[in-house]
User: Fold this.
Amino acid sequence: MNILAVNFGGIGDEIFFLPALISLKKEFPNSKITLALEPRSKSVKDLTDIIDELILVDIKGKNKYLELLKFVFTARKGGFDTVISSGGNKFISILLFLTGIKKRYGYDTGKLSRILLTKAVPLNKNRYACEMYHELVTPLTNIKTELPEINVKAGEKIPNSVLIHPGVSKMSVQKGMIKTVNAEVWTELIDILVQNGKYVMLAGGPDDEEVIEYIRNNVKNKNFEDFYGKTKNLKDLAKLIAKSEKFVCSDSAPLHIAVALRTETYAIFGPTDDKKLIPNFVKVIKAKDNCPLKPCLWERCQTTCQTLDCLKITAQDIADALL
Assistant:
């Protein structure tokens, strides 16, 4: 079977989508899987052998509709037997119909989707995202893959180690979606952990340069391992997470890599809904606020508020969870 999967979103979304693709590969071991995704998320292919080819579709760029038209022509020429697409937009079923692919699976977004799709799958957003995405492949397989799996082995842990990844995507910050504590908190956390005898490691990606520089310039105890700039890609970061006894991060892509590796993970959550974004074995660190709107981001609004009471978490709060 020649399968086209479509999943537009960030790298976290692509990791959420992996269990569905893994189940398809288990059901159809000789299949070829092509994933259509945004260019910003193409590095997901470094983490898995499940994906054979990529089609890049820049739907966030200036030429969104031209990109989608090019995608349709590429899909029509690809010789695909089946297409599966995430996304709750009513346009998705039309897009899949235009590809000319015989078997089309997507979410039920109304009467049109039930006409244009081979099977319109009920969309239930009120659960862990991996489960939500996996529903798309239930018409094709009874195999259920619960969690993401990536091509990095857990290996031997560094004794007494804590890996800190303080960043979130720059795109989310630019759009006014604040999802983590500030650089001062991360800096103080490193001091507390080192003082308590932990072997602290620091990592981050290109989007995290500002917070990393603040930490480097302001941390009092320099007795930590600085891996910023040494992890060249997602797979390098995954290998470092795999070696760590404990991993501390925010609601970001590295969190989902840690889930795939089953590393003991502590995640800071503020305005987003942890029940939809992580399995229950991840330790959640939240502020002791009484905001009646939380979780609000994406549920009630597209940007975070000015007060950010939900992120008033101290370095000691985080350390107490870890120590």
The CA atoms of residues 168 and 194 lie 23 Å apart. The first helix runs from residue 11 to 27.
